[in-house]
Design brief:
By secondary structure, the protein is of the alpha/beta class. 31% of the residues lie in helices and 23% in strands. 41% of the residues are buried. The protein binds cytidine-5'-triphosphate and magnesium ion. The site of cytidine-5'-triphosphate has 23 residues, from helix 3.
Length: 231
Amino acid sequence: MSTAAIIPAAGFGLRLGGEAPKALREVGGESLLVHAVRGLKAATAADLACFVIAVPAGTEDMVLKQLEPYCEGAHLQVVAGGSERTDSVRAALELVPVDGIDCVLVHDAARSFVPVEVIERVVAAVRAGAPAVVPAVPVTDTIKRVDRDGRVVDTPDRAALVAVQTPQGFEPSVLRRAHAGEVAGATDDAMLCERLGVPVQTVEGSEDAFKVTRPRDLLLAEWLLAERTRS
Ligand code: CTP
Ligand code: MG
């Protein structure tokens, strides 16, 4: 049995700014998307057999050529994404083969530097029987719930809060069921599973799995890459 990876990479990166879509922005001379694919491929225990990448319409051929050298031994497909992240994931999910796949990962192109151990932890948990798995890290800020006018409603106990990352891993039929229903307002795939009442398991994430979101995150990414090259 093998794993399939869906990579939503069709966002424009409005918070990052710049000319190119975020996934095609470069760090250390290679796109965030190339770094993300290479990271997943390095997780050998995950047995990645298939990549489906959702990209901005019109960039499919270019991305296919860019990624081919990094996907040796795995099947690579590139599809046009949609206007919301869930639309992009759904478009990619339609291309994931049913036979021979026991785990589907959904991984943000923008979390390009997730360590191999996190990826393998997620896949192992799915293979051990968890229908939905998310990497999580403790939150460091105090989080407050606010109303529309910015007034604080309450302060959830920080010990009970975690920030979740990707790759999120799923038993394939569970992810298909999750995306077959109403997806409005969902900011990750685990949330769709929660709506179905499917239990979602957390595993230990990593600070290195941060999402490149704003310009300063590119500096952090450059630094992290340089550190890894040095060690
Ligand atoms: N994504 C996608 N399709 C969309 C929107 C987002 O595939 N319609 C992808 C992004 O490419 C990214 C991941 O989902 O890899 C997480 O989204 P986010 O970090 O919000 O990226 P963007 O939506 O591109 O950034 P912004 O919200 O700042 O515009
Ligand atoms: Mg976005």
